[in-house]
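Class, study these two lines:
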Amino acid sequence: MVKRAGSSSDFPRPQFEPGEPIPEDIVEEIEAEQEARALRVARRDPAMDRFVWSIIWKVVAAAVLVGVAWFVFYQTRHLLGLVVVSTFFALAMIPGINSLVRRWQISRGAAVGIIYLIAMVMVGILVGILIPAVVNFAGAVGANVGDWMTDFNTWTADTFGAPAFDSTADSSDAVNAAMHSVAQWGDNVLGLISSGIGLVFDLFTIAAFTFYIAAGFPKIVRAFMRRMPPERQRVFWWIADQSIEQTGGYFYSRMLLMIVNGGLGFFVMMVLGLPLVYSLPLALFMGFVSEFIPFIGTYIGAALPIMILLAVIGPAAALIMTVYIIIYQQAENYWLSPKFSSETMELNGAIAFGGAMAGGAIAGAMGAFMALPMAALITAIIKNTGKTYDVVESEEGTHHVTDGAPPLAEDDEDDADKPSRMRLRKSKKEKSTQQPETATPSVPAGD
């Protein structure tokens, strides 16, 4: 089909009478344009078209895969969190499992079963102690709440000129308010029961994953190593060893500190006259919370014993307990904790604080609990990998603002096999012609 002349909007459309022939110059122009268009089409590279379409399909496929991966991750995020927690507990158990296997020549599965049995016995004892304590404390509060309110009203009246509570009010009002609250809470009983069932299921899931990971850890490590070249196998093995050392060291050092903290707290509460039914569970609670919840656990673990001493015995005992906890925390921070954990988990205080805050923001209390060994592992990896250089001392007679003071021995690298600092006391001419030293990469620890 011949394109009519003047189809372009840049030129006016010529008018022809019916039957009048098209001028030769216009026909030649149309034919030249068609030939040029055919030439451009012939010169187009089909490979370029295939390349463009392949890029488009790859982008589309990558977007679909990312979407599917994100959907799968979102749907299984709870399960993945349970697997992470199980891996943490498995790494913490491995030193104990290895000790049982070496000492008693038993299988790893049997060793994990022994540790589970010990944990179940401890939890059973703890629950058996806590339930009578809660019942007795509730009875003591119910029997003494009237006297406490009277004493508090007397103190506020003497101090501020008016009682804090209206003593003429009918006591049944408080009972009615409590019953109304119980009725409201009763609407959520089904939700509480379902939450409890979900928690029990999560605990069984963590226990199952922990058992399989801890029992088959050597096989899991070797399965990963078979997919790596020999150069990376040593690095992976070193990282696995560091994971076990940092996590196990943290866990067992915390266990020792929990025993010391709870034992001393139990002794002090018994001396102050708190009954055994209160002292023993409070000591367990104070020791566990103070040691296994970073930073804020100290205050949470101390608050409950102080409040119960204040309610059951009086202000003097609560004040003595407060003074004891302050003194003990200072002794633990500056003596006990470094002594128990310095050889197993070296971690800067700022990194520990930031890691605990970050872990709590990401995964709540469990994240804060797992953050410290994870931060110690990352610090150990950074410290023992990559290139390192010798630190150059200042020349005699010169001073840098960053020096601050003469360098101390602990300012150097912790490794004993590191070379000492290189001292440069050369003339300016020699220093200008000196070539920089070749960096010596640090080698990870052997397997």
Q: What stands out?
A: The chain is about 75% helix and 0% strand. The radius of gyration is 38 Å. The longest helix spans residues 108-160. The mean pLDDT is 75.
